[in-house]
Design brief:
Layout (H helix, E strand, L loop, with lengths): L3 H20 L3 H26 L5 H31 L15 H6 L1
Helix pairs in contact: 1-2, 2-3
Length: about 110
Amino acid sequence: MHLIYPVVLAALLFSVGIYGVLARRNVILVLMSVELMLNAVNLNLVTFDVWLADVLRSGQTLALFTIVIAAAEVGLGLAIVLLVFRNRSTIAVDALRELADRDAGEVLNR
């Protein structure tokens, strides 16, 4: 197998993920774009591990570690999204520019 095919595919996946993070307004779609970028990194790790014929399979081990980190990121990210939706009734990124509570300024002024 040629090295260029999976590397170009990973670059395309990563580019689509970058576009999704920068252009999307929905937090769920931003999380999906981050997952797409992590999958592109995994593809590169496994591709170069096979190409270099590493005896220890370091690339595949790092890819497995990345999958575990991605699963934890999805769990934590969805929990944050649910909490924000419960408090603000929206998950649009533009509406979440201000991280502080709206009533916090009134409490601090008392």
